[in-house]
Design brief:
The complex is a heterodimer of chains A (121) and B (929).
Chain A lengths: L1 H19 L4 H20 L21 H32 L12 H11 L1
Chain B lengths: L2 H18 L4 H21 L1 H5 L4 E8 L4 E7 L1 H24 L6 H20 L3 H19 L6 H32 L4 H5 L2 H6 L3 H15 L8 H4 L5 H9 L3 H15 L3 H24 L3 H21 L3 H32 L15 H15 L5 H15 L9 H25 L16 H19 L1 H16 L17 H18 L1 H9 L6 H23 L4 H21 L15 H19 L4 H21 L3 H24 L10 H26 L7 H12 L4 H9 L1 H22 L23 H24 L7 H19 L1 H4 L7 H18 L12 E6 L3 E6 H31 L6
Antiparallel strand pairs in B: 1-2, 3-4
Helix pairs in contact in B: 1-2, 1-5, 2-4, 2-5, 4-5, 4-12, 4-16, 4-20, 4-21, 5-6, 6-7, 7-10, 10-13, 12-16, 13-15, 14-15, 14-19, 15-16, 15-19, 16-17, 16-18, 16-20, 16-21, 17-19, 17-20, 18-19, 18-20, 18-22, 19-22, 20-21, 25-29, 26-27, 27-28, 28-34, 28-37, 30-31, 31-32, 32-36, 32-37, 33-34, ...
Chain lengths: 121, 929
Amino acid sequence: METVYVICVGVLTFCGVFLCLRGRTFSVVLGLTMLSYAVNLFLFSSGRLSLNGAAILGMADEYADPLPQALTLTAIVIGFAMIAFVVILAIRARADLGNDFVDGREPPDTDKLVKKEEEKA
Amino acid sequence: MSLFWITAILLLGVLVPVLTERFGRTTTTICTMFAPAVALTYILTLLPEVLSGGVVIEYLEWIPTIGLSLSMRLDGLSLIFALLILGIGLLIILYARYYLSEKEAVGRFFAYLILFMTAMLSIVLSNNVLQLWMAWEVTSISSFLLISFWSAKTESRKGARMALTVTGAGGLALLAGLLLVGDIVGSYELSVILASGDLIREHALYPVALILILLGAFTKSAQFPFHFWLPHAMAAPTPVSAYLHSATMVKAGIFLLARMYPVLSGTEMWFLIVSMTGLITLLIGAYVALFKHDLKGLLAYSTISHLGLITLLLGLDTKLAAVAAIFHIMNHAVFKASLFMAAGIIDHESGTRDMRKLNGLWRFMPYTATLAMVAAASMAGVPLFNGFLSKEMFLAETLHSSALGFLSWVIPVLATLAGIFAVAYSMRFIHDVFFNGEPIDLPKTPHEPPRYMKIPIEILVVLCLLVGMFPEFLIGNLLSSAASSVIVGELPYYSLAIWHGFNFPLLMSVVAICGGLLVYTYRRHLFKFQARFKDSDEKLVFEQTIQRLVNKATAIHEYFNNGSLQRYVACMLVFAITITAVPLLNLNTVKRHLPDQAISGVEITAAIILCLSAVATVIYHRKRMLALVTISVVGLITSIAFARFSAPDLALTQLSVEVVTVILLMLALYFLPQKTASESAPSRVVRDLAIAAGVAGLVATINYAFITQPLDTISEFFLANSKTGGGGTNAVNVILVDFRGLDTLGEILVLGIAALGIFKLLSRVRLSMSSANENGLPWSEDSHPPILTMISQSLLPLALLVSFYIFLRGHNMPGGGFIAGLITSVALIQQYIAHGVDWVKPRIKVDYQVLIALGVLIAALTGVGSWFFDRPFMTTWFDYFDIPFIGEIELASALIFDLGVYLTVVGATLLILANLGKLTSVHRPTAEE
């Protein structure tokens, strides 16, 4: 089971990093979201994987490690705040700069670019 | 009174001129002089103690736990410097009153001056090398402010910048050197360092420390090849120049050399570097001074030359040389200050400092001329003036030096040569300005300055004369006490008499005076010869070098900071891969300790769905809506995974966050372009795939490495104390609100700050929205479907009830403030979605910002509350109560803390989403593109 779990974390990291390296804000946001899943799973697994062992006293014979869970719980909420912040930053950038590029160039208007591609297709 | 008061009073004195400026120049001047006068008086009361060989050392504990304390020291060396700084400083203040005009910011000027004085005094009175260094840097900064006082002039700004750059860079070297010394000795206290000279000199790092400290001293004292900043600091108002060149600033470097003399000197390296630097500076300064047409320029180079002389003395390997150095420090300060002030008067009253125009001023200002002549004679080393005495000692010591072995004869010869030039430029200062024909079109008709402007010069000139004639009587004690704090062991015998009989030094003096007169007489030939050299402008060279540096730095900066997030992320990740991968390469001991647990079909299916939808998100990331659907599948599976692996709290949190995130992203989609054009070059895609694979491989490897190790956790404590200490059976929640409550407080604070940041970002944002979806279909006008409206309305109370229940049970069962807050938020946001902002707004009259503040406040106050019961911050309390009809219930302060968490989460989430959602209604349907 550990092997499969680790593979899943790896795949999520892979997808997250790749999306973060794209040149548009929305892809970066998707990438960050994906990365935060990966990171949360990664951190959580430091308490090892245990089945039917929720850390509620009296409910199981052997408890899962509650500490990584508590840390991950706040990480999830903070992760949301971070993603929300990035999203709003992206919207603000789009409003102020007129595009959603993050690769540092001064591009023509994004929507025109999309239209052009549609015409080509 | 204590030595610390001196700094304190002077620091307060910085404010005085600023506050009294509006009462006029004279009042300001008098008030400004108060603080230095008090300090001077106090130091004079300590005079007998120090002169009798005592050293006043005072400590003030600052941060004792890390061994930092402030300490002050007043010994003979500090004493003469303190007297010079305060005494000449007072005269400078008086002089500046008349030098600066009514229109100038006198208050600001005096404030800078006092600040500078404070810094200088702190250097000389410091008993801790770090403290000394701090003051050293303050002198650099305050001298920058003083030099650039006339900031409207380009040369002032450039000169100030140059001084700051050179002395500031030297200051950094000094810091490194002092840290090394401190490290070698094991203490930064000067009294300890001064006692461990042998330890330092024999240490392997001694050469490094020595060179670094010398760099600091040489840059400050304008020694070759760092001398070029000093002439450009001339752009300062003359009182500043007079002060910088005599008792302060450039003397700080000399002071440092003298201070560290007992510790650093005594080695071949010290003698060679210090004496050679001094000799070169002495010669260059004296030679160049002769050719300067600017009055202050001449004096500036003569300062450089005299500083070289003192440095040379400190670098000679005889004890007497050190005595002579200290003697010359005092003499130079006195005559140089008076000469600068005289130059300032000439400039002030005639409108120019150009010696080609200034001629025959004797007729206009005979009194000033007399004063200047005395001072200049002292500078030239004419008998009966103080400069003669120390110069005589200097010449005598050059004869005794054996620093250069068999070539040591070079030193006295070159010293005499420099003496010749010193006489020549002193002659020029007097003859060219006060005699030598008639003035050539001066901007003003020169006249004697106001009475009080001359007083400072008079005092100094009288000192020149008195010291020159009665040296032993006036300063014998002062000099011997200063010398004994520089020289280790017995003071050598010396006599401060004017007449030592016919001897070799006297001959050298005579040669210098006669040679100087000859050189001056035939100066035209020399000038003609000098004119054949190309005039090199140090300022230009300096500015070019700086510009080149800046260009290089900008180029590097722009390469890495080109505005492309992709590049930053790529660089960062590659770096992260490297530093993580390298240790892994050497890690061969990772053995699997635990076998994999058995896996069931459910888990395999979930894993496959997770991976597939993640990959699908990547593949379809340009079709944004589709990508959103696939990524939400990933989130869902993640929360299921949490549930499966015994983390119900996490599962609940992840699930509710998932809902909020998807709503957020959908709103974002509305404002962002609907589609992404494919624009990555194939090579870029390959590169990114490689980076992603690298990072993912590493993360997975590390994860696998630790996940298969036996668990060694500190959580036993939490599990054991959760019920007894925290009063709840849900260990995760107890950790959050009790054991690690402070972390959670920080966490909700961050959440609140993020929400407020978003609120700010969204205020007055101007958005253009597309009026149609990605396929060109216009948005539906029917924005609120009735079925959703009806259902959501009836769901609301239910949802709120559920969240209340989850909140209450959180301490004992999965749930708690975070999860309840998210559920409440989702329920409320659903109302926004179903009815629109306009409908909700009048019905929910809650200010979300207030909600956040309230939440954080409640959580923090719960923590503070424990202080009232004499417990540490955040101690929780709980107890059980028996309430009729309901039964035994538990009341815990943690519940109130959790309420704070709950409120913050609700406030933050709604602030973010409602604000973003509001934009859709306010602007709609104005968009067109």
